[in-house]
Design goal:
The protein is α/β, with parallel strands linked by helices. It is built from 13 helices and five strands. The radius of gyration is 22 Å and the shape is elongated.
C-alpha cells in the first residue's frame, strides 16, 4: 500500500513582517541615496513603486518605511486589512479601499505629534482605492505635509489617476529572475522541490508561487500539463482535473497559464472571457473549465 505524501504547509510572512528582500537593489539604493542626501536636496515626498503582483513591492515599501520613521516617528498604513466602513467598523467585504479609511488616516495624521520626526504613509495598493478614496489622497498630495513620506504601491500604473501619478516619483520595478525566485523558494520553502515549469509559470512573481503552494495549485498545474500532453488522456481525465481547478477561484488562472505555456495565443481571449463569465453569469466552474481544457487539448 502506497504511503500518502504528507501535506506541507508553508508560512509565508506578510510584507510588513518580511525582512528578506531579494532583488530590487537598484530601486532601494536610489531611495537610500536620496534619503542620505536630503539635507542638501529635498527628498521627493511621494514615491510610487510600480510593477506586477508578487515581486516584492510591498516588502520594499515596508523596508523603506522602517528606515524613515525608525520606530520613533509615526507610521500610517492604508490597505485592505485596515479597511473600514462609514461607521468606522472593519469592512471585510468588497475589493476596494474606502474613502472612510483614507479620512480616518488623515485625521490621525492631524492629531499626531510633529516632534521633528518623519512620518510615513504607506498605501498598499493604490489600485484598490475607490475613486473617492483616491481623490482624497490626491488632495493630500497636492500640498504634502512637511517631513512626511508617501509610499504608494501599485500593480498597474494605468489604474492610477494621472493627477496622482504626476505628483509621484515613479519607480518601475522589474519581475524577479529565475535565480532570485529560486533563492526565495529556498528561503521560505527549504528543501521543497520547485520545478522549472513552476518557476517559469511564476513570470517573475514569488507571490504567485506562494499562492499556488498555499492551495496546492502547483501540483494541480503539473497534473493539468500532464493531462494535456498525454495522448492517452480521456474526457474523464480532463473532467477530473477541471473539478480540482474549480475547487478554488484562485486556481482558475492556471488554465490561462497552460495556454501561454503551449503558445496558444489565439485561445487566450476566449478562455479569459469565459473564465470571467463564471462569476458574472454564475456558470458551473467545473463544466466551464472542462470546455476550455478540451479546446486546449484539441490544439495540441
Amino acid at each position: 500500500m502506497a504511503t500518502k505524501k504528507k501535506e506541507v504547509l508553508f508560512d509565508f510572512p506578510k510584507p510588513i513582517d518580511n525582512d528578506c528582500l531579494i532583488g530590487h537593489e537598484e530601486t532601494l539604493q536610489t531611495f537610500i541615496n536620496a534619503w542620505n542626501g536630503r539635507n542638501e536636496h529635498s527628498i521627493h515626498p511621494v514615491w510610487m513603486l510600480c510593477g506586477p503582483h508578487g515581486i516584492g513591492k510591498a516588502t520594499l515599501a515596508y523596508k523603506i518605511a522602517k528606515m524613515v520613521y525608525g520606530d520613533v516617528g509615526d507610521f500610517f498604513i492604508i490597505d485592505m486589512e485596515n479597511n473600514i466602513d462609514k461607521d468606522g467598523k472593519p469592512k471585510t467585504e468588497g475589493k476596494e479601499i474606502t474613502v472612510y479609511t483614507v479620512r480616518a488616516m488623515i485625521k490621525k495624521m492631524q492629531m499626531s505629534s510633529m516632534s521633528g520626526k518623519w512620518r510615513v504613509v504607506l498605501i498598499d495598493s493604490v489600485d484598490e482605492l475607490n475613486l473617492a478614496a483616491e481623490n482624497a489622497i490626491l488632495k493630500l498630495l497636492e500640498e504634502p505635509p512637511q517631513q512626511t513620506l508617501f509610499l504608494l504601491v501599485t500593480h498597474q500604473l494605468s489604474n492610477v489617476l494621472p493627477t496622482v501619478r504626476s505628483r509621484a516619483r515613479v519607480e518601475k520595478m522589474r519581475p524577479l529572475t529565475i535565480s532570485q525566485l529560486r533563492e526565495l523558494c529556498i528561503k521560505f520553502m527549504g528543501e521543497e522541490e520547485i520545478s522549472s515549469a513552476m518557476l517559469k509559470l511564476a513570470n517573475g512573481s514569488f507571490g504567485k508561487i506562494a499562492n499556488l503552494k498555499a492551495c496546492g495549485g502547483d501540483v494541480i498545474y503539473e497534473e493539468l500539463l500532464n493531462v494535456l500532453t498525454d495522448k492517452k488522456s480521456t474526457a474523464s481525465d480532463m473532467m477530473s482535473i477541471a473539478v480540482k481547478i474549480a475547487s478554488a477561484p484562485a486556481l482558475y488562472g492556471i488554465v490561462l497559464d497552460a495556454i501561454a505555456y503551449f503558445g496558444l495565443a489565439d485561445l487566450y481571449p476566449m478562455a479569459s472571457n469565459t473564465i470571467a463569465d463564471i462569476n458574472r453569469l454564475n456558470l458551473r466552474p467545473d463544466i466551464t473549465l472542462f470546455k476550455i481544457i478540451t479546446e486546449i487539448k484539441k490544439c495540441l
